[in-house]
Amino acid sequence: MSIKFPTRRPEAGEIAHPDDLNLNFKEFVDELNGNIDSDNLKDEETGVRIDKDCFSVGSFSECFQSSFNAVNSPELRFQCSHSTTGFISKDDNGVELPFIEFDAEADGWIVVDFAVSHIWEGNGFISEDEAKTFLKVDSEHFFPFVAPSDKVLGNPLHDPPGGWLAASGSSKTKMERSVGEHITVSPVGSANPDGGKRFLHKNYPQGRWIAKPIDRYAIQYKVEVNGNDISETGWLFNGNQRQGVYLCGSIPVVAGKNKVIVSVRAVSHFELTSSTLGVGAKFNDLIGKYTPRQTEVTLDGTSPLPERTEIDTDSFAIPKSQKPSKIKLGIDCFIQSSNLVIQYRKA
Questions:
Q1: What is the widest separation between alpha-carbon atoms in the chain?
Q2: Can you give the pTM of this predicted structure?
Q3: In the chain, what are the domains?
Q4: In the structure, what pLDDT confidence band is assigned to residue 199 with cuts at 50, 70 and 90?
């Protein structure tokens, strides 16, 4: 063992302070804890000290990454399933979400960072009847404008409708006719006819308000390490057509092989309701008077995403000049890019 000298030498008659004693003890305690140097790193028989370059350079941590980017390559995007509500890591086209498999030299822990972005495509209609209901705009919704038909086509055709549904028109339907004498009841107020000021329907929106939009499709992500969930999102609905997501987490790992995978699921998400029965249910004018007829169920109602299918519009009661030949129902959810980063740290 190397020679160590006291850091603080006591003097005769001096009151000993605990900190001074600790400094002296620290000289040899630190060496026992691994504070070795060239004095004790030498061959006992020959007395030759060990070469400084005999130790290999290493690190206490490693970093791994897996990612893909298909923003400019639609055919390489990950497509969420239309046949299951469970989590998947590979789609029907063989595209896989990022995963990492690594060998840990010793026990330790990992820090996981995952970023991903997705996009919804499609109007979300599940049937022809629903498409008719949402796309129709009756004449009462665009009074005082005049049109040769009492129904016009609402937009959009390719995105889920919700909120304000603007009515589309063209010169063929004569919807650009001036407001004329009806200007006093228009949303923009009155105009002076003598001033030659005229308002056309395209100067301000017309259509109808959809109080309950098609916002019933949701996606969810999770990250697993050796089969254990370490991070997941809640339901992310299609009301945000494009969205970026970030997940992170940390978990201990053991020496040997470890695998980190990312999985996703996209579903039709419905809020379930049930009729009120039994105690408290409405029985007469007094019993159950203040009990709601329906109550919300705590469980989520989920089913697979509706398939993208095309239908003809022959049966749609809208002017032919506004009628597209076909409308595509259903909705898709595509993952455009993702990045998985793992920091492995030895214990």
A1: 117
A2: 0.65
A3: 1-51 (no CATH), 62-123+214-346 (2.60.120.760), 128-210 (no CATH)
A4: very low
